[in-house]
Amino acid sequence: MHWIHSSATMSRNAYLVLLCAAMLALASCDRLQQQLIQRGAEKAAQGDRQDWLSDGALHVVLCGTGSPLPDLERAGPCAAVIAGEHLFLVDVGLGSWENVQLWRLPRQQLSGVFLTHFHSDHIGELGEVVLQSWLAGRREPLPVYGPPGVDQVVSGFQQAYALDTGYRIAHHGPELLPPAGAEMRVNTVELGEDGSALVLDRGGLRIRAIRVDHQPVDPAYAYRFEYAGRTAVVSGDTTRSENLVRHARGVDLLIHDVLAAHVIESLSESLAEHEARHLAKLTADILEYHASPAEAAAVAREAGARMVVFTHLVPPVPPILASRVFLHGIEETDAPQVVLGRDGMHFTLPPGSQEILRQDLD
User: Fold this and answer.
1) Are residues 42 and 59 in the same domain?
2) Could you tell me the CA-to-CA distances from 278 to 163, 195, 270, 288 in Å, in that order?
3) Contact by Cβ (8 Å): 211, 223
4) 118 and 22 part of one domain
5) In this model, does residue 359 exceed pLDDT 70?
6) 228 and 130, same structural domain?
7) Position 45 confidence tier, pLDDT thresholds 50, 70, 90
8) What angle do CA 351, 354, 355 make, to 5 degrees?
9) Which of 121, 213, 252, 343 is catalytic?
10) What's the pLDDT score for residue 37?
C-alpha cells in the first residue's frame, strides 16, 4: 500500500509539472503569436516592397511559370512588371495572385492587366486580381488590355463577381471600399500594319503589343515594356515568331514560353500505344503552337536579347529534372544567357546599366 501511495503522489507531482510546463508553453506561444501578429501588421502598414516603385529600375517578377497541366511547384502563367509608380501583370493564371500576395508586391498600385490571349490558363485568376487589389486599397477601375474579345472576358468576370462585390460594399461601406475599385475598364488593343501597337505611353514608360503566332488562337500578343532605358518582353504563348524577333530587337530581358517537344512526342506515342487515343491527340496537338527551348533561344539570339528566361514550362517535371528536360541541346555559344524560370524569380534592370540582377523571393 505504501508503494501505491507513493506512486499516486509521484503521478500527481508529474501531472503538476506537466501542467506547469503546458501553461508556460502556452504563455510562450501567446507571446510568439503576438509578435507574429505585430510583425504582420507592420508589414501590412509598410506596404511591402514599396521601394521598387521609386528606385528608378525596371523590375520583373515571375508570379507563375506553369501551364494548364497541374504542377505543385508552379502557378499558372503570370509576370509582374514594376516601373515607376506602377505594377502591371501580364496574364493571370491560376495561383498567380496568391504569389503576388505572398511576396508582398505593391498590390494597391496595380495599374493594369495585360492579357496575351484568352486560353483559360492565362485568364483564370482575373476575378481575384480585381477583388484582392481592391481590398488592398486600389480605388479606381482596373484597366484590362488585350486582343479583340477582351470585352467579353471582362464582362463575364464582372458578372460572376457582382454578388460578392455587393456583399463587401454593404459590409464594409463604400468609404472603405469605393465601388469604382471593383470595376474593370476594357482596353481593346488593335494592331497596326507592322504587327504591333503602342498601348501605353506614360511617365517615361512605353508598352507595346506585338502579334505572335499561336494559331488557331488569333490574334495573340506579346508585350514589350520600355522604362528608364531598359526593356523587357513577355512573349505570351507562341511558336517561333519572326514578328517577335523584329519587335524584341535589342531587348534586355525576354520571357519566352517553351515546350519540351521530345518529351511531349514520347508521351503522345505512349498514350496511343495504350489506346488512350483521345489524350494522345490532345497531347500531340499542343506541339503545333508552342516554341521548343531551342527555338526560343534562337529567337532571343536573333533579336539580340541579353537574357532569355524560359516560362510556361510544358510538361511539368520534378524540379530535379527540369534543367535536363528544358535546357537539353542548348549550347551556350548559340544563345544569349539562358535561364530556366521558376516562380518567385525577380529580375532587376537598373537604369544607366546593362546589368540584369536576379534573386529568388522568399
Assistant:
1) no
2) 38, 36, 12, 17
3) no
4) no
5) yes
6) yes
7) very low
8) 90
9) 121
10) 52
Task: Clarify whether residues 69 and 213 are in a common domain.
Answer: yes
Give the cell for residue 349.
534592370
User: Any catalytic annotation for residue 121?
Assistant: yes
Please answer whether residues 329 and 318 qualify as being in contact, where contact means their C-beta atoms are separated by less than 8 angstroms: no
pLDDT digits (tens, 9 = 90+) for 195-212: 999 999 999 999 999 999
**Using omega within 30 degrees of 0 as the cis cutoff, is the peptide bond preceding 216 cis?**
yes
When pLDDT is averaged across residues 74-99 and rounded to a whole number, the result is: 97
Same domain, 81 and 39: no
CB 91 within 8 A of CB 146: no
CATH number for the domain spanning 345: value is 3.60.15.10
Domains held by the chain: number: 2
Do 35 and 113 lie in one domain? The reply is no
Query: CB neighbours (10 Å) of residue 339?
Result: 19
State the residue range of the domain holding 42. 1-46
| Adjacency order of strands within the sheet including 253-259 | 196-202, 205-214, 217-227, 230-234, 253-259, 307-314, 337-340
| 3-class secondary-structure state, position 35 | helix
To the nearest 10°, the Cα dihedral for 88, 91, 97, 103? -50
Q: Is residue 346 within 8 Å of residue 359, measured between CB atoms?
A: yes
E-assigned strands of the chain? 58-64, 78-83, 86-90, 110-114, 142-146, 184-188, 196-202, 205-214, 217-227, 230-234, 253-259, 307-314, 337-340, 345-349, 357-360
Does 206 lie in the same domain as 184? yes
Is the domain of 175 the same as that of 319? yes
Residue 96: all three cell numbers together: 498567380
